[in-house]
Amino acid sequence: MGIIYCLSDKSVEQVNNYFTNSYEYNQWFFRLKTLESCLAKSAEFMANVADEELKAESIDSFKLHLKAEIVFTFFHSAEALFSLIIATREAQVPWVQMRGIRFKDLCDFIRDKMVAKALTEEEIRYIFYNGIVDDEGKKKLQKSLSFIKEYLSRMGKIFLENEAYNEYKHGLRVMNREAGFQIIPEGVADPKPVMSVAGTAHIFLHTEEIARDKKDVYLNVSQVTRTFDYELFLRLAYMNFELIRSIFDTRRQKLKHGQAGGEGTVYLYEHANLEELFKEDTSRWFRNSIKYPTSNPEDLQDKK
């Protein structure tokens, strides 16, 4: 059964024009700047801005949760960006289309189209540089289109590792900690670590099916600790904001000046460095999973 939105041609135009002119892409900018500024000047913030309740909290805990919020803002902005790409590419009324995109379908699209680099450069131009239709203008966009295509592929791979984000947005089922582990040899005098890693981490639960019957599915449960480099996610979140801004600014200029375009701002990426953008501190990266002891499904049946 399909869903049909009963909109007249005039209504379609009104909805599209309102969405194009009113979308608040600066919400991403303001959120990122607030998090970045509070983190960079956390001591000053706590001393001069925070109220007594906040001052009573640990500044280290404050900074830890700001870093975690930057990571989740990356995932949230990426979800918005990919939803906009689907909607502006496929739908007559993008604002309406975005309301019906399921997360699984979004991830399938990212895997099949973004990561696989299946979008053509003409499709990318239509999404991010709508209204630039002359040959000279398209030629100037060439390097930027290639950059965006590669960026979306790399960023899409990171987005698909979204277990912690899923735990965050569905009831805040994730914890943030400074975590680490060491490997220490046994049976030697004065043992010293042969490996030691520590970093800022998300801690969440992971489940895996071990059996099922006609009525129930049996899962084992693991506790996962996964570190993150918040500076990487901050750079990527700003890039997501810029691409969302480009989607709307080029369309706003098109509405203002007509199909032929006119003077306006276009954001190019001729000199953008993907390697710098995706640089990560791998020396602090680890993922550790501890499985909780498991009962046999037969034993669980007896307890029901």
Structure description:
The structure is a single chain. The protein has 304 residues and is an alpha+beta fold. Helix content is 56%, strand content 14%. The chain has one domain. The two termini are 38 Å apart. The radius of gyration is 24 Å and the shape is globular.
Order of helices and strands: HHHHHHHHHHHEEEHHEH
> Stretches where pLDDT falls below 50 for ≥5 residues?
none
Tell me the fraction of residues in β-strands, as a range.
5-15%
Can you give the helix content as a percent range? 55-70%
In angstroms, what is the radius of gyration? 24 Å
Shape: globular
Number of helices: 14
> What separation lies between the terminal Cα atoms?
38 Å
Q: What's the average pLDDT?
A: 89
Question: Could you describe the largest sheet, including whether it forms a barrel?
Answer: 4 strands, antiparallel
Number of strands: 4
The strands making up the biggest β-sheet line up spatially as: 1-2-3-4
Number of separate structural domains: 1
Classification by helices and strands: alpha+beta
